[in-house]
Amino acid sequence: MIEEAAGGDRAARVADAVMRALPRWFGLEEPLLAYVEAARRLPTLIAVEGAVDVGFLTVEQQTASATEIVAMGILPDRHRRGIGRRLVESAADRAAASGVTLLQVKTLGPSHPSESYARTRAFYEALGFVPLEETTAIWGPANPCLIMVRPLS
């Protein structure tokens, strides 16, 4: 089940717990804490199985036309079960219903040799996202940022 939280303590707790279980993606403390604070203040979807919170997705509307997936994570033992797909589709549906025409996400670019992020990019591509631009202007030369977008209309 996907539940919507308007930010708050629960969203922050879920984001913190899930990201700490994913050190290959969220291994740096400062960005992790920034994502936790984003979950506290922004709309966040929470994936629930039984009584267990197993994933989250935080969004921020950047313009009248674009909403960004700020952070997303699924507990590692729940990967490859469709939870991430349901979270993204739920975010896309909500964005489209509010008139947004683009869903975007930033991830580590392909010029960085990360197997984990290669899987992340493949996940987003399978959901209809296309690479728009890779740049070092956002996260610096050591962490090239790939901006991916998905048309919603």
Sum up the structure in keywords.
153 residues, 7-stranded mixed sheet, Aminopeptidase, alpha+beta
Describe, in plain words, how this protein is organized in 3D:
The structure is a single chain. Helices cover 37% and strands 32% of the residues. The chain has 153 residues and is α+β, with helices and mostly antiparallel strands. It is globular. The chain starts with a strand and ends with a strand. It has a single domain (2-151), classed as Gcn5-related N-acetyltransferase (GNAT) (Aminopeptidase, 3-Layer(aba) Sandwich), CATH 3.40.630. The model has no long low-confidence stretch (mean pLDDT 93). Helix 1 (9-20) packs antiparallel against helix 3 (29-41). It has helices spanning 9-20, 23-26, 29-41, 83-97, 115-126, and strands at 2-5, 44-49, 52-61, 66-74, 102-108, 130-135, 145-151. The longest helix has 15 residues, at 83-97.
